[in-house]
Fold this protein.
Amino acid sequence: MAKENKLNIEIRDTTGKSAIKKIIAAGNIPSIIYGLGQEPQPISINRLTVQKELKAGGFLTKIFSLDVNGKNTLAIPRDVQFHPISDLPIHIDFLRLGADSKIVLDIPAIFINHELSPGLKRGGVLNIVRRTIQLNCPANNIPEEIVFDLTGLEIGDAIHISATKLPEGATPTITDRDFTIGTVAAPTVIKEPDPVADDTAVAEGEAGDAKTEESSEDKKD
Amino acid sequence: MLQPKKTKFRKAHKGRVKGVATSATTLNFGTFGLKSLQAERITARQIEAARVAMTRYMKRAGRVWVRIFPDIPVSKKPTEVRMGKGKGSPEFWVVRVKPGKIMFEVDGVSHEVAKAAFSRAAAKLPVKTKVVEQLIK
């Protein structure tokens, strides 16, 4: 089993809007644990603890040991909802894990050797097509990251999933093609607008409108 | 400047911008983004001015994505024209932005450069903004 992390949780018996409001006011985040054919269990977790874990990175690929009704339960975060304005976490889903479970996870893609890519040196930009790679992997062997080497890539080149060696037992969910992870793209080129042409167009438009209105006024008089 | 190639109707109702954004609230392309904190109509000119300010500061390094598109025509009556006699002619294009919407994304530059470029872009926009960064979850 991959490294387990302890996370203090509180069991909550109440659900619904008013109960959730109280939980949020107390500085906690409402969450739920489900899976393994058992009943879903609503819980709440301290907001600061969650924020610390989120900042540390790899939150969605970590296995947590949660104390549910005096019993240690292994669970993995499946989804984190964020507030659209404040970007604070507002809800977390946890999936219960068995000893020999196999799960589909989004593993972060990491790119190395930027300085050894002639395309990036010439001003190209690494256009990341997939920041995470969806893998079907056993719960006891979850990779922390998938590393891709950028050595020798020119502008216009692409890096595919076949460019790296996946950990044992892990297979990508997309199997029908050698999908792209990133490309080395040309940088954004500034297109200077032609100020003379723009001004003329606007002036013409205004003049035209004014003319129409004037003629209608004339008719009225 | 950005505007639709063709539209079904020439003129649109004024409308109101209410609520918070439900789409485009997370980064999808770049590592850094500029998020709106207010509801407002943003014109095609403002979007273009912000984009140019950013790309000029970044000196052609990196890449910029514009995630908003002005597809609502705003009409205006000419000066010194009496009220009535129908709706004015379309003058410019706007997009209704709600708080939480990511308007621009940037990649291929450092955190400092992205932040400075976004501050220049924010000065061209009529909304309060904040810079958001991609966290590998």
Remarks:
- Chain B has a mean pLDDT of 93.
